[in-house]
Amino acid sequence: MVAPLAPDMFDELCPSDLTPIRFGDKWAGMIIRCLEGGPRRFSELRVPLRGVTAKVLTRSLRKLEQDGLVRRTVHAAPTRRVEYALTPLGRSLLGPIEVACAWAREHWDELIDAREGVVAAD
């Protein structure tokens, strides 16, 4: 059993939201990070991704599945449950995502200033 996802895994000011490099849609990179530790159920993903609606999360998961990055597995017995897991292709994105997050952390102040409309003098 994998440890539960932390509710504050992506806080409101998380650099992952500032990264101008997108891996799919707005939520795809964060979903991939959530699946890094192993398969997760939809309800588990909702904990750190509390800012996304169920409809948008479903759409993002389906797109990641279509792109071959996520595998959806339905377990029928004893009770029906669905899990999402990274495929090897999806797992190969973890390195580039970490590089993008590191870049965002390094340029945090510049990104915040740009979003707030502050122009830095060179």
UniProtKB/TrEMBL annotation:
Domain HTH hxlR-type stretches: 14-112
Gene3D superfamilies: Winged helix-like DNA-binding domain superfamily/Winged helix DNA-binding domain
Alphabetic keyword roster: DNA-binding, Transcription, Transcription regulation
PROSITE patterns in UniProt: HTH_HXLR (PS51118)
Pfam families, alphabetized: HxlR
Molecular function terms, GO-annotated: DNA binding
Name recorded for this polypeptide: Transcriptional regulator, HxlR family
Native organism: Micromonospora narathiwatensis
Taxon lineage: Bacteria, Bacillati, Actinomycetota, Actinomycetes, Micromonosporales
